[in-house]
Amino acid sequence: MKNVICSKVLWRGLLLFLVLTSSVGLAEKANVNMKQMENEQLIELFASPKYKDGSKALDEILNRIAKSNYDEHSELAKLLFHYWRESDNEKIRSRCFQGLRWTKSQAVVDVLTSQLLHGSTRAERRRAAWYLRQIASATAVPALEAAVRADKGGGFVEGRTIAQYSIIALGLTGGPAVPVLIKIWNDESLRVGCECGLLAAMGYTGDVRVVPILVKALNSKDESIRSSAAAALGIIGNKKMVFGKKREHLNAPDKRTLRSILLRLKQRQNDPNESVRENVLEAINKIEKRIQGKSR
Predict the structure, then answer these.
(1) CB 3.0–4.6 Å: which of 24, 124, 193, 208 could bond 253 by disulfide?
(2) What is the CA radius of gyration of the chain?
(3) Residue 234 lies in a domain
(4) How far apart are the C-alpha atoms of 93 and 99, rounded to whole Å?
(5) What domain range includes position 259?
(6) Would you say the pTM of this structure is higher than 0.85?
(7) Of the residues 61, 83, 103, which one is the last residue of a structural domain?
(8) How many domains does the chain contain in total?
(9) Which residues lie below 8 Å from residue 161, measured CB to CB, with a gap of 6+?
(10) What is the CB neighbour count within 10 angstroms for residue 117?
(11) Tens digit of each residue's pLDDT (9 = 90 or more) over 138-158
């Protein structure tokens, strides 16, 4: 009886092993087939509404973009761009845009800046600004500045959302956008309704040139501005990357400047507003770690 039971257990174990190994084999075969596809076949699969697991195809596309020469890089960008423009399926457009972000395609930037400035609706212009903040291209800076200047607001509920999105896009662009961000801040008519977003964007740049503005904002009568300035100084004092992106053209503060920022932050440790105090303490912690060489 025991032998019969043992035999059944062994057969079941063997059957399970065969099922698992065959599944692994099929998965490996699918991956190999994907690697053997031509660029056009791969993008067509990636952009198909019937293809459910876009992550594997995206990984292969990004791998090719990283390893490709100029001609292949351009071919991948054109194929992704075609499906991004032509598809009516928002999920497919979103997928293709993920790939386009990494190609740094100027054609995409041109389309988006045109939509940002000349889109027929506020929703279209706002969506273009949202896409541009993901690409973070220096060539989009003039259009983003123009969008901030042009946005007078979409009513009481919406406010200056196009300007706000454009300002964040400028911040994520980094160094090339710093002079524009400073210019917008110094013009009260441009920064109205966008003050906190502007301070955050300055923090995203990681650039030492915005430090005087942020330090001065710590003494604002407006608690939301003080809080945003403290948070932005914490970002500048700590991170070399924002939202997983490496900052380009980084003009980071040296340790002497960091110590000066630290001194000014410590003067706000007892701010009457709880949110300000929390952001100040967090910024102090980040900067102290940066000075000690412990931040990432």
Answers:
(1) 208
(2) 25
(3) yes
(4) 10
(5) 205-296
(6) no
(7) 103
(8) 2
(9) 122, 126, 151, 154
(10) 15
(11) 999 999 999 999 998 766 557
